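Hypothesis: this fold can be encoded by more than one sequence.
Test: take the structure tokens below, design a sequence, compare later.
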């Protein structure tokens, strides 16, 4: 439930392939977990603050990870300039080896 429901985790279909997260946290107060992969853990931490989910994702080096967020999401670590918007959602590549922070309105 946690990985596939709340985090919307999609494992890579082949070695070296692309992993995806589509967090659906709603008004969950907070969550911190590691998603273990053969290339190392993906660290995910979220906190509900002022009606918005603030979450940080750290992907291991050499792991391709995209996060799918609402088009209105903003980043606390840099602009969200990549990823085409489709049906109100944006798919963003997560840089490897360093934390990426994203803010999504919970309402």
């Amino acid at each position: 439930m946690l990985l596939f429901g709340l985090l919307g985790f999609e494992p890579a279909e082949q070695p070296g392939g692309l992993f995806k997260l589509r967090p659906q946290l709603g008004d969950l107060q907070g969550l911190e977990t590691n998603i273990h992969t053969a290339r190392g853990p993906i660290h995910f931490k979220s906190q509900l603050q002022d009606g918005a989910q603030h979450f940080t994702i750290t992907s291991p080096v050499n792991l391709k990870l995209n996060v799918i967020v609402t088009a209105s999401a903003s980043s606390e670590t840099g602009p969200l300039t990549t990823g085409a918007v489709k049906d109100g959602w944006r798919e963003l590549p997560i840089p490897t080896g360093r934390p990426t922070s994203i803010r999504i309105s919970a309402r």
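Residues 2-6 form the longest helix (5 residues). The chain has a mean pLDDT of 86.
Hypothesis status: open.
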